[in-house]
Structures are given as structure tokens and as C-alpha cells.
Amino acid sequence: MKAAGGYKVAIVGATGLVGEEMRAVLQERRFPVRELKLRASSRAAGRALSWGDRQVEVETLISDSFTGVDIALFSAGSGVSLDYAPAARDAGAVSIDNSSAWRMDPDVPLVVPEVNPGALADHGGIIANPNCSTIQLVMALKPLHDLWKMKRVVISTYQAVSGTGREAVDELLEQTRDILADRAPRADIYAHPIAFNLFPHIDVFQDSGYSKEEIKMIAETRKIMGLPQLRITATAARVPVVTGHSESVNIEFEREIDLAQARQVLADSPGITLLDDPKTDSYPTPLAAAGTDSTYIGRLRRDESVENGLNLWVVADNLRKGAALNAVQIAEGLVDRDWLR
Amino acid sequence: MKAAGGYKVAIVGATGLVGEEMRAVLQERRFPVRELKLRASSRAAGRALSWGDRQVEVETLISDSFTGVDIALFSAGSGVSLDYAPAARDAGAVSIDNSSAWRMDPDVPLVVPEVNPGALADHGGIIANPNCSTIQLVMALKPLHDLWKMKRVVISTYQAVSGTGREAVDELLEQTRDILADRAPRADIYAHPIAFNLFPHIDVFQDSGYSKEEIKMIAETRKIMGLPQLRITATAARVPVVTGHSESVNIEFEREIDLAQARQVLADSPGITLLDDPKTDSYPTPLAAAGTDSTYIGRLRRDESVENGLNLWVVADNLRKGAALNAVQIAEGLVDRDWLR
Questions:
Q1: CB of A286 within 8 A of CB of A246?
Q2: CB-CB under 8 Å, B237 with A158
Q3: Which CATH number goes with the domain that contains A72?
Q4: HEC states along B4-28?
Q5: Phi, psi angles (nearest 5°) of residue A50
Q6: How far is CA B93 from each of CA A190, B69, B84, B116, B119, rounded to the nearest angstrom?
Q7: Taking Cα atoms as reference points, which of A238, A220, A239 lies closest to residue A230?
Q8: For residue B96, what are the β-bridge partners?
Q9: Contact in structure between A297 and B205 (CB atoms under 8 Å)
Q10: Closest residue of B to A153, CA-based?
């Protein structure tokens, strides 16, 4: 369905950090929006948010919210997605869902457009946007896997608080002010203060000892890359950074590697910016990545502890490439290929 | 030489963060100090620092500073250690050096008392205190290596700014205030702002692409553990934490592992506190570790991506176990074994 006048797009969770970023990205990329609907819980409804030179009122999400909608961008948590994405589908919309609700459903494509755009073809009305830390990881892994075939991956993450949402950003800033003023910081959102601190705890822990975040990274990477047996392990940590996830990535390859070739291939890959001249202080950092669209890669070096080993450092804005941008890129992919329903 | 009245101890670099901590640790542990000499650059000389209920004046470091000194604790940078530790040795003192100057000298023992106390026996008047990030790492590795023999280790660090010194702590706090007040942060100590940011850059970069910090961790771990061929790689990152280094450690063992046994052996190891009940939010964090003496270990779980793989999380106060405490423990080891000269 190509719509000459553009598409009716709904953002569900419009007042959240990712919802806001979705609105910004749609506008920046001039996505052909004919009509924009902003949806949120009744608590947030009634507010007016800017859309170009107009204001759009946020409306309460109800099951009738999807009448006439072509594309629904969801970022309001798993519960909302589970409840409402089927309603959107029944109303004829394609849902692009930023929650974890549908990601591992075998009938739902899990897509990073630079990595597995073909997976979009088979969608049945719901497409899952991967976890923020997974998106930037597969952006880095894919070009290198195509070169030398991955054997094993070991990741440690340094994840920003905006991944949790606006309350977590507020808590970081509030705790920071408290500590600077010698007041005891109060932790509501996280189990421990995050200001001037960090912890290996993102999402809830499973019996295996892994956090759900770590399990998501492992499972989603395998699904996106079509490598169900990929040997991969992860440790996910929250750090006192507002926006921008960083990842220390160690990869063992099947075939002989070449650093110059890795740099060339990564630099030539769409969506990737190579920042790899450490002697001139050039490497990715979250503060520099925040507010931008690239996945930044640097610190490429041989890991001499294993044959064909490579260490690298990957940073991206978790709200943009890690969430809103990737979702809008999925929508663009659907429109370009005429894969809306 | 057992001295009934105690020992004449000099702290070189007495006004630095580690020098201050050395003074505190000597006192807390009731190290038998007969006389305390505090030495620093001429810039810091003249200040009086507390020692029990007395004040001790900081004197300028000169080559004659070691007359009659039994133990000299150095923490004033590699240049000072290279210049003055030989003078201290010639004057009959044993130097315990916190800089990197002597660590890889084959004639100088590099010691973590819980790990390789026997190496103290052969000292020739200079003993090196390992790098902060190395000390807590080998504290965790040794008991596990003794159980199952390590095959390969992959580490990513999350290192606090107090490892750099007082100016870096001030810079973090100043930049934090600037960012909270919407002022542009100014970076003098580091190449990039560290407040609400982080970077994979500690110490200078070598042609291999590794930072000196990463190389130190690799080389010092091999030396301390007596495993010159140990397969080990590291990524070292600086994070906006004041005190307390964290490490994500991935280990592959030769023999079959058992999580319950690992927990038991670690919990029973001197100097280690096991904090490993993630479902009740129990795991090591730097804010909780700061100001304490233990090496904290948690998040133990099988790495299913490799045979006999284990992930864990290690945190310690980089100024205490990572520097001052370990140095004083070395001094205690010398005294206990009558290994002073």
C-alpha cells in the first residue's frame, strides 16, 4: 500500500523518552506522515506535543485507537504491547514494537534494517524492535561475521540510565545533586544509588544467575543474525551516564583476521562511524554519541589470547539507534518495499 | 630485624590520595610504627598531617630522606620511585612501591599477600605493589585457578577516577556541577569529560592499540600468578565513579567447574567477601566497596558459550586493596617473617 498523501502513524507511549525520540526522528527523516496520532496512558493524555509547527494532543490509548492507522510505533512497555498490538493488527495497522513482548515470537520478525532487512518480508502485522544493547552489538558483529565467521563472542556492557526511562534519568540527576551536597542519595527506581556508582543489574535476574537483559542480548543476537547456535555470553551493567550505551566486545573468529580490513569494512558499513585512532584520543564515548544516529566503533585490536581474536568498543545512542531510529528505519523499510498491509 | 619499639616508616607521596590512605591503613591496622616520616614534593612540604593524636609535618623528599628508615612506602609516581627507591635501598630501607616503575623488573617481587606471599622472600630492597585493577583481579583468579586451572581470561574494567589522583576526582565533581548547571564541562586531566560519560582510555596507548593499563593487567597478572603464558586479554575503561574499581571477568578453565564449590572457596578465601545473591540485589558495587578492605565477588554464573566457562563480577576499593592496604599488607608480611633487611 503506497499512500501518496503519506501514512497515518500512531506513537503509543508518546510521552516517554523513546516516544519523544520517535516523534523527533520521524520529523528529521521526513517520514511521509499524513496524520500523527499520539497515544499514552490516561495519566499523560491531554498534553499537547509539537509536530512541526503544529501541536498534537496526546490521547488515551484505547482498543479503538488504531482505526485507519497504517503504522503504530509502540514504546509503552511489554504489557501495553501484548494487549494492544493485536488490536492494531486487527485494525489493519503494522505495529513496530520497542518492547520485549514479541521479540522472541517465532512469527514476529526482529529487525535491524542494516543487518537483516529481509526478515521484514514475512511480517504478519507485528515487527519487533530489538533491545537497545543488542542493536548496536549486531551492527558491529554483522560486517565482521560476514568477513570471517564468528566463533564466540564475550560482551560486557556499560548502559545508560535513559534506557530505563525518564524517572531513572531524574533519579540519577537527583542523587548526583544529593551526593554533591553531602546528602544521602535516595534510590527508588534502582536497587542501589546509581550516581557515582554502577551495578551489574539490568532487568530481573533468572535462576541461571543471568539478568533478563543479558539473556535478551544473547537470544536476540542469535535471532537477528540467524545463528541460533552462536556461542555468546554477556554481562550487562548500568552506569551513571544519561544517554549512550557502551560495549566492550571480544570476538573469536573462524578465519584469520586482518585489522586494516576490519576497519575498512566497518567504515564502509551503513550506519557505522569508525572512531579508531586512540593515540589522538579518538574512540567512541557515550557523551559524544548521545543525540546522534551512528553506531560508533573503535579500539580495534588483536586479542592475542586466542587465535583470530579481536577486541572492540561499540557505542550508540540507546534512545535513537537503540530504539526510536531503528523503529523508524523499519517503517521506512516497509514503505520502500511496499510491505505495509 | 625485629624492632621491639617498632619501625621507622616513611610515606613518600604522603599528601596524595594513596599516601593519605597509607597513613590511615597503618593506623587502623596498628602497624608497629616507631616513627613516621611524611615526604612529598617541595610544593606540598610544610603541611602538618594527623597521626594518632599528633601532627606530623610533611618534609620535602631528598636523597637523604631514608636515613634510619626501615620501610619506605612509595606512592608518588614512577619518576620519583625510579629516582629514590635505590637511595632508600642503599640507606638500608625496604621500599614498597605503588608505582609501575619496578613491577616488571625480574629482580623485584610483585606481590599480593593473599596470592603470592612467598615472592617476598627474594626481595632485594624493593618490592612492587601491583596495579590497582590487577590486585583485585588476581584476588579473584587465584582461588579459582587452584581449583580448576585457568585456560583463558577476558576482562573488561570499570575504573574509578581516584585511581588517577585527587585532581581527577576534583575534575569529575567540577564537571558534574557544570553539567547540572548547563555549563560546558572543561576537561583538563582526561582527554574527554568524565562526568556522565566514560571512555576506554586509561594511561597511554601503545602501537598495538592497547593502553598501558591493559598491558599492565595482562603482564602483572602473569607475573604474580607465575603463569607467564596465561592467555588473558583486557579492556580498561574509566567511569564516573569516585572510588571503587569494578571488573567483568570471563574465565575458561581446563577442568570441569562447579558453581557451589566456587562460591564456597571464594567465601573462604582471606580478603574476599562473596556477595552473590542477585535476586535480593546482592552483588558488588563500587559505592558500597569504597572505604572498605575486601575484594567483593559476585554474579557467578556459568558461561554456556564455552566448556568450563565462568562469568563473575569483582569490585574493590582501588585506594585500599588496590594500593595502600596491599602495600601495608606487604610490610606486615615482611615484619611477620622477619624479612626486613
A1: yes
A2: yes
A3: 3.40.50.720
A4: CCCEEEEEECCCCHHHHHHHHHHHH
A5: -75, 140
A6: 50, 5, 11, 22, 18
A7: A220
A8: B73, B127
A9: no
A10: B305
**3-class DSSP state of B193:** coil
pLDDT of residue B5: 84
The angle, 0 to 180 degrees and rounded to 10, between the axes of the packed helices B212-225 and B132-148 is 40
- Using the Cβ of A300 and the Cβ atoms of chain B, whether some distance falls under 8 Å is answered with yes
Residues B66 and A57: their CA atoms lie apart, in Å, by: 77
Q: Within chain A, which residues score under 70 in pLDDT?
A: 1-4
Q: Distance between CA A330 and CA B115 in Å, rounded?
A: 53
Sign of CA dihedral B163, B168, B169, B175: negative
Q: Are residues B204 and B187 in the same domain?
A: yes
CA distances from B312 to A234, A257, B185, B268, B323 (A): 11, 29, 35, 17, 22
Interchain proximity A239–B301, CB inside 8 Å = no
Alpha-carbon distance B111 to A304, whole Å?
Answer: 25
- Residue type (1 letter), A304: E
pLDDT tens for A223-260 read 999 999 999 999 999 999 999 999 999 999 999 999 99
- CATH number, domain of B253, equals 3.30.360.10
Across the interface, whether the CB atoms of A305 and B154 are under 8 A apart is answered: yes
Which pLDDT does position A5 carry in this prediction? Answer: 84
| Cell reading at A231 | 556461542
Q: Which of B233, B285, B303 sits opposite A233 (nearest CB)?
A: B303
Q: How many CB atoms lie within 10 A of CB B177?
A: 15
Which 27-66 residues of chain B touch chain A by CB within 8 A? none
- Same domain for A23 and A145, yes or no, is no
Each residue's pLDDT tens digit, B203-224: 999 999 999 999 999 999 999 9
Identify the bridge partners of residue B155 per DSSP, sorted by sequence position. Answer: B234, B249
pTM of the model: 0.97
| Closest residue to B281, CB basis, from A176, A192, A197 | A192
Closest CA to A336 of A122, A111, A113: A113
Residues of chain B with Cβ-Cβ distance to A208 below 8 Å are 301-302
Tell me whether residue B207 is in a domain: yes
Stretches where chain B sits below pLDDT 70 are 1-4
* Residue A233 sits at the chain B interface (C-beta within 8 Å): yes
Residues A209, B300: C-beta atoms closer than 8 Å: yes
Nearest to B233 among A205, A278, A303 (CB): A303
Confirm whether B249 is domain-assigned.
yes
Query: Would you name the residues of B annotated as active-site residues?
Result: 132, 245
For helices A325-336 and A17-28, the axis angle rounded to 10 degrees is 40
CA B257 to chain A, closest CA, distance in angstroms equals 15
Rounded Cα–Cα distance for residues B201 and B185 (Å): 18
- Are residues A180 and A100 both part of a single domain? no
Domain limits at A40?
7-130+323-336
Radius of gyration of chain B (CA): 20
Same domain, A275 and A209: yes
Summarised one tens digit per residue, pLDDT across range A171-180 is 999 999 999 9
Total domain count, chain A = 2
Are residues B110 and B159 located together in one domain of the fold?
no
- Is A239 near chain B, with CB under 8 Å? yes
Pick the residue from chain B with its C-alpha nearest to A236. B248
Inspect the interface and report whether the beta carbons of A288 and B192 lie closer than 8 Å.
yes
Q: What residues of chain A, 163 to 222, have a C-beta less than 8 Å from chain B?
A: 173, 176-177, 180, 191-193, 196-201, 205, 208-211
